[in-house]
Predict the structure of PspA/IM30 family protein.
Amino acid sequence: MSNLNGWGLTARLISKHFGVLGDKISEAIANFDPETATEADRDCLADTLRETAQKLAAARASFNKEHTDVVKLRELIANDEKASLTLAERLAAGSISEATVSLFCDELEANKARLPIELQEEADAQEYMNELQKIVDALSEQLAQFDAAAKKALQNLAAAKAQKDLQELRMERQNQLASLNGIKGHSTALNALTRRAEKVSNEAAGMRIVADIAQKPLDQAAEIAAIRQSVAQADTAGETTLQRLQRLSGKPAESIAA
């Protein structure tokens, strides 16, 4: 069972059990800004949370022990008060010694005197535990805010990188187009190739003109030959076999017949 040196009043508990950690927690909560905090700040806060959580676990165990002590002491006092009636009857009947009854009464009075102390220790332990719980909740909230802000920052960073990549691609495309336009307007090789193509085109046109001139007499001769052939075919149309022989031999028909 705890005593005053172990627990004491809440103010003494906070001073004793927090010490430097209490100042560290207060400073961490007061100065923490999830929007501008660094990863090192987050790690420091997480370490403080772990330390405080360990103290909270110990405080819960101590409170449970203090509460159990109070419950047991109350039960003991209640049972002794009931037993005192029986002891009074036995003392009156002479079945128990007065010394034994006096010892019993001393213990009952001591337990009743100790009950307020135990109740205060239980209350102090509970208040200390509750304060630690508030601090743990505050630190947990700060960490949650940091993680949310960090997640948002990472999303913004990813979006910014995507925009940067897009703009870089646009600039690269613009540079490529500008290079192509520069080649079209200023490339010596391309200009020479263009002039060469024009020269060859002009040469081909000249050769076509010469070929057309040379082709004209040939076309005229072919046209005359076609006319002659058509006339000859017209003159022999409908001739008999005898007349055909006469025409081919160059002799009159009578001589052929004789």
The radius of gyration is 61 Å.
